[in-house]
Write a structure and sequence with these properties.
Blueprint: E1 2-3, E2 11-14, E3 21-22, E4 28-37, E5 41-49, E6 53-54, E7 58-60, E8 64-75, E9 78-81, E10 84-88, E11 92-94, E12 97-98, E13 102-108, E14 119-122, E15 134-141, E16 146-152, E17 157-160, E18 166-177, E19 180-182, E20 186-190, E21 196-211
Antiparallel strand pairs: 1-4, 2-20, 3-4, 4-5, 5-13, 6-12, 7-11, 8-9, 8-10, 8-13, 10-14, 15-16, 16-21, 17-21, 18-19, 18-20, 18-21
Domain ChrR-like cupin: 9-111
Protein name: ChrR-like cupin domain-containing protein
Pfam families: Cupin_7 (PF12973)
Length: 223
């Protein structure tokens, strides 16, 4: 399966307008944003766990990173409440689920193959002192990518022109990008060479951004 697999194109998706698609595991549904592959895929998705649902134990051969958007995500490593950012690099394994239900934004098979840096962070606790109405948290960086989280006050502007492409998820509030208004759940992917310029709406905004990674995008390696 290929979905939004041309990384030279700009993609904007208002994810909350998409239908939920059942996964192979009962009680776990997803909204697909981009994908290369079948059930083993380089994928970016919004995933919803119903109350009491769980996935079977599995190993992330290509790595997994996710943000808990609501509820509490759980596995044998602990409880991960709303606002948690998690990186599970290649070779890690777990049995994910949620007693009370949750929604996560998740990316699969998008790691440096040699990355072994596993961690979790409460994103809001990483925020630095605001500058011109923008508070920034640096969540992760390596030779392949930079991952950040931002709180924008009403009317505050943020620009990025990093090489290697840009991806943004609106977690709360609204931002404008060009002629587009992006509200909660909106996902924007810009190809290398396109700069990001956003301005927060009247209620401000909380956004997650990754840059640099699209230059390395490829299908998962399966055996």
């Amino acid at each position: 399966m290929e979905l939004n697999a041309d990384f030279k194109e700009q993609i904007t998706i208002h994810s909350e307008q998409l239908e939920w698609i059942p996964s192979p595991m009962q009680g776990v549904d997803r909204r697909m944003l981009d994908r290369i592959g079948g059930e083993v895929a380089r994928a970016t998705s919004i995933v919803r766990y119903a109350k009491g649902s769980k996935f079977s134990a599995h190993t992330h051969t290509g790595g997994e990173e996710f943000i808990v958007l609501d509820g509490v995500f759980q596995d044998e490593h602990g409880d991960f409440p709303e606002g948690t950012y998690v990186r599970n690099p290649p070779t890690t394994s777990h049995t994910p689920g949620s007693d009370e239900g949750c929604t996560i934004f998740v990316k699969l098979w998008q790691f440096d193959p040699d990355d072994r840096n596993q961690f979790r962070k409460t994103m809001a606790e990483e925020l630095a002192t605001p500058i011109d109405g923008v508070a920034t948290a640096h969540l992760h960086s390596d030779a392949f990518e930079v991952v950040t989280y931002h709180h924008l006050d009403a009317g505050a502007a943020l620009s990025k022109s990093d090489v290697g492409g840009t991806e943004m998820l609106v977690i709360h509030g609204t931002v404008t990008h060009g002629a587009d208004t992006l509200d909660k759940g909106a996902w924007l992917r810009l190809p290398e060479g396109d700069a990001l310029h956003v301005t927060a709406g009247k209620d401000g905004a909380k956004i997650w951004i990754k840059t640099g990674h699209l230059a390395h995008a490829k299908a998962p390696v399966t055996k």
